[in-house]
Amino acid sequence: MKKDSETESTVSSSGRRRTTWQTVTNYHCSIVGICLRRQDMRALSRKKYFSGCRDGYSDFRMHSYLVTAMATRSEQSRALAKLLDAKYRLAVKRYATASNEAEIEALWQEDLAAGKIAGGYWAIMTHPAAGAKYLSSVYGHCHLLGYDFFGDYRRDARETESLREQVSALEEVLAAEHLEHLAEQEQLLQELAVLRERVHLLPPARPEPQEKVLEKPSADAGAQKELGDRLARLLCRECELVAENLRLAAACEQMENELARAQESLGVQEKQLTRACRELEELHGELKAVELALLAGTVEEPCAECSDVNTEACPGKNLCGKTILYVGGQHKMVPRYREMVEKLGAQFIHHDGGKEHARRLLPQLLGGADLVFCPVDCVSHDACYCVKNMCKRYQKPFVMMRSSGLSSLAKELSRAVQ
User: Domain range spanning residue 377?
Assistant: First the structure.
C-alpha cells in the first residue's frame, strides 16, 4: 500500500493523468465493476491482446482477469485504459478543467445528482490532482451506494402494490365501459340497418312541376330528409364510439405495460431483499461467533497444563492439533488472527496472497495445513482462484470468508469447532 501511495503522489505532482497501473490496487476491482458493463468486457475479450480469455471464461472470471491485468504495465492494461478513455471521453475532458480537489468535488456532486457516476469515477481515479484521502472517500461513497435501497424498499413495495391495485380497478372500469360502448354500438348498427331498409323500400319520388314543388313539399321528400338526417347522426355517433374504443384500448395497453414494469421492479427488489436478509443472517452469525470468542477469552484456558495439547488425543472441543492457513487479509490484523486461532489450541500460518510472500510457497504451506481460510474482500481475485484450485488438488478444506474482519474469522472458527 505504501508503494501505491508513493506512486500516486509522484504522478499527482507531475500533472499528468494516472494510468491503470498507477492507481491504488484496492480500487481496481471497483473501477472494472462500476465503469465496465458485461458487453464491454465481452468486447475486450475479442481484441488481440485478450485472446487468451476468449474460450470458456465466465463474466466473473473475465472481471477477475481485467482486475489483475489493470495492476501491471502491459498491452492489456493499455487497451483497457484506451477503452475507458474513449467510453468516458466527455467526463475526462470535463474533469480536466479542475485543478484541485475542491473543483473536482463540485463536478463529482453534479455527476451524483445527474446519475453519471461511472464516467466521473473513472475521471477522478485517474485525475492528477486527486489525493489518496480524497480517492478513499470517493471509493467509500460508491461502495455504500449499493446499500441505499434498503431504506426505500418498504416504500417502493407499498407503492408497487398500490399501483397494482389501481391498475386492476382501472382495468375493471375500462372493461365495463368497453362492453357498454360495444352494446351501444351494436344497437346503433341495428337501427342503422333498419333505417337503410326503410329507405330502400320507399317508392321513388315522381317528378312534379317546379311550381308545385315550391308551393307544397311532398310528404315523401320530408320523410326521406328526416331519415337522411337521422342516418347522418347515427354515422357520426358510430365514428365517436370507434374513436372511444381505440382510446380505451390504448389506455388498457398502457396500464398493462405499467403493471408489467411494476412487477419486474418488485421482483428485482424482492431478490435484493432476499440477498440482504441472507447477509443479515450471516452478520448475526458472525456477531454470535465474536461474542462466544470474547466469552471464551474470559475463561482460563486449561490447554497450557494439558499433556495432550496440539495432539489428536486432545479431549477439548476445539482445534487442538490442527494447523490453520490464512491467505490474504489485512496485514495489521495478522496478530489478532493469530491470537484468535491460538486460543483454540491451533497453529496459525499466514500468507498474504502474493503481495510480499512468494506465490510458490503456497503448495508447501498447504501441505502442512488442515484448514485454509481466504477473505474475498482483502485478497486479489487471481490469488483467491489460485488457492481454491490448490485446495481442490491437495484435498484441503477451503473456507471463503465474506470479509477480513475478526467477526468472519470467529464465525468460521466456531463452525470448525462444532
Answer: 307-417
